[in-house]
Amino acid sequence: MAKARTSLVRTGLIHLALISYTLIALFPVFLTLVNSFKSRNAIFRDPMAIPTPSTFDLVGYKTVLAQGDFFGYFQNSMIVTVVAIALVLLFGAMAAFALSEYRFRGNLLMGLYLALGIMIPIRLGTVAILQGMVAAGLVNTLTALVLVYTAQGLPLAIFILSEFMRTVSDDLKNAGRIDGLSEYAIFFRLVLPLVRPAMATVAVFTMIPIWNDLWFPLILAPGEETKTVTLGAQMFIGQFVTNWNAVLSALSLAILPVLVLYVIFSRQLIRGITSGAVK
Amino acid sequence: MGSLKLTSIRKAFGTHEVLKGIDLEVEDGEFVIFVGPSGCGKSTLLRVIAGLEDASSGSMQIDGQEVATVPPAKRGIAMVFQSYALYPHLTVKDNMGLGLKQAGTPKPEIETRVAEASRMLSLGPYLARRPAELSGGQRQRVAIGRATVREPKLFLFDEPLSNLDAALRVQTRLEIARLHRQLKATMIYVTHDQVEAMTLADKIVVLNAGAIEQVGSPMELYNKPANTFVAGFIGSPQMNFIEADRLGDAQAKTLGIRPEHIALSREAGDWQAKIVHVEHLGADTILYLETEETGLLTVRLFGEHRFAADEIVFATPDRSRLHRFDAKDQAIA
Hints:
The structure holds 2 protein chains of 2 kinds. Chain A has a domain at 72-223: MetI-like fold. Helices cover 73% and strands 0% of the residues of chain A. Chain A has 13 helices and no strands. Chain A has helices at 2-36, 40-45, 59-66, 70-101, 107-115, 126-136, 142-166, 170-178, 183-194, 196-212, 215-220, 229-234, 244-270. In chain A, helix 4 (70-101) runs parallel beside helix 7 (142-166) and helix 4 crosses helix 10. Chain B folds into 2 domains: 4-230, 3-Layer(aba) Sandwich (Rossmann fold), CATH 3.40.50.300; 238-325, CATH 2.40.50.140. In chain B, 26% of the residues lie in helices and 32% in strands. Chain B has a 6-stranded mixed beta sheet with strand order 6-7-8-3-9-10, with helices on both faces. Chain B has a 5-stranded antiparallel beta sheet with strand order 13-17-14-15-16, with no helix packed on it. In chain B, strands 2-1-4-5 form a 4-stranded antiparallel beta sheet, covered by helices on one side. The two termini of chain B are 36 Å apart. The A-B interface holds A 169, 171-172, 174-181, 189-190, 193-194, 273-279 and B 47, 50-52, 71-74, 77-79, 81-89, 98-99, 102-103, 130-134, 136, 139, 146, 158, 163.
């Protein structure tokens, strides 16, 4: 009995800690969502209150949908994020495979060089990047953003994926070689399916900073045609007057696509077909 | 057809030499086993034969064809791995057929060969399953099936039974022996288990520290070990080694006598001994003795015998079964 009670206390404490962390993490999101459905006066009078029939107001969403091309902004953000993730996963996985699979001179140095970007923030090179983009004529294009985000995401992707690829059984790859699979077939058909959970992790880690980034869209692609959602929401924030209804509504809407992407990737995290490959 | 000829094969990783010049000939249809302690280079040698590792120097011929630069898939070999190495996303049938499909074999031919292999290994009911849905023994049978459908000149086995439990190991061992009889194919098999080596092999190759110590049939190695390493490695319990000058043999440095070649008596014998420990195994009784002349001595008696620790007994070696080794640990003929 004593044992059962202590374990009850223990699980209770664990749940308490987890629940309080969840509340703290979700509170800003909750506040954003709740206030996006309230009238301007209600937001300022009582920011914590849940919308009631008298304070409920969709004016924020109406402003967002009426002003500017928000659908276009979403599309831009989506294109940049999805293409950058795809490139990061493809090139990251290929580099990781080469580093973990083949013995060649300078392998370790190459790995360190590719991982260096984890420690050095890419924003330090903003001026040089901007000059480069101007010279290449890529300013105000989505290509500029995709290129920068791919570079930004690769170091962590290579670092994580090469660790995972080392765990893929050598015997399996050798069996493929004996069966006549090319190195590309071994990579795409044997190794990639086995590191799928790691790929999903990398995808999530890559996606969030790209979706949330304001810095590079502001500098490299501030034009109306190439605005991303975060940049689009900025037009409601003024030096003297801020349209909070519109800002909160825009941010609430911005959560949705990234939520969908996350659900897709997290399903991959759980669904693994690794069991039964070896042992 | 499936003969193999290795000529002074060397393999080094950086400055570390793993294979120090291996010369070996394997006849068509032979079952050859590489045996040795871990780290002796036996797996590396197998991988060099498979083409998964390049030899640093030396030449290798399969059926008289030089294959040093031929990729693994074109060498006419098939390999069975310790960890089975089945493709997790393919069914048993596709696992077995993939190699043929890659080689461009027509579909009906693949079908018949897979059907034949699965009949031989009784895998019929599992053809549509994925590896994750099979037990360890079944997975290894699939791996063996995958090797047989390719109809290779050379079968390579890399410790195929190590991951199986004891009962399954014996059963799979019998299956491999049966397969060898049926296919009459050349097989090269790596193991660290001398029981597997003794029971399966036509020819055993004992490796130690990257070099071949001795090549011979199981009984040759048992009866005429070329040196103390082979003498100690083959046979269980291990051969007893006795310093020769303690027994007054001036020519030899070490004398060896197998535990089963020592007779024991309570009344009289060559060496008086005190029993240190007794192991009753039913079929055998293994005794550990302490004697003045030889130090610690292992004796194996067949059947059940009533001996207890601290008893005083007399041990007598069978002189005709005594092995003599010189100062370089080589056998004196």
